[in-house]
Amino acid sequence: TGPQLYQQNCAFCHGENGQGRVGAFPPLAGHTTELIKTPEGRAHLINTLLFGMQGPVRVKGNTYNGVMPAFGQLTDEQIATVLNYILNAWGNDKLLPRDHRPITPAEVANARSVSGSRPTPQQVGNNRARINVP
Length: 134
Ligand code: HEM
Prior knowledge:
Layout: H1 2-9, H2 11-14, H3 32-36, H4 41-51, E1 53-54, E2 57-59, E3 62-64, E4 67-68, H5 76-88, H6 105-112, H7 121-129
Antiparallel strand pairs: 1-4, 2-3
Bound molecules: protoporphyrin IX containing FE (HEM).
């Protein structure tokens, strides 16, 4: 389930309640909804989980420059489940766009299978740096 996957794989860094830790791990509470509202946000969320992320990023006025490990060992189903969890947990559901549709395992499979163009964590970070969030 979403809560189980989150507790087992993410909470150690991003916090039990998605609050993150200033300067070390970006918050997910009140933030994944900022990403999903951008044109590139959906793909970025999926790529971060599949391929990891590295490089400076600004979230809610704080800079993070850490390494997010890849979780490509999780199944497409598990990645979709944990992404939908972090998009809805901690009150995030109230911040989602009205036309939001859940991330599907097929979308994850599709991102995974663009073989030959698997981004490195650095490339995921570079792409992220160009996404404008508040
Ligand atoms: C970044 C989710 C596990 C450390 C991110 C971002 C998301 C995310 C969505 C992108 C934030 C953005 O671009 O604004 C998750 C989920 C996890 C997980 C769902 C579990 C499956 C972890 C773990 C660590 C970690 C275990 C620590 C070992 C980080 C760091 C960043 C980040 C440092 C920022 C990377 C950078 O500075 O470029 N995470 N994360 N995450 N995560 Fe995670």
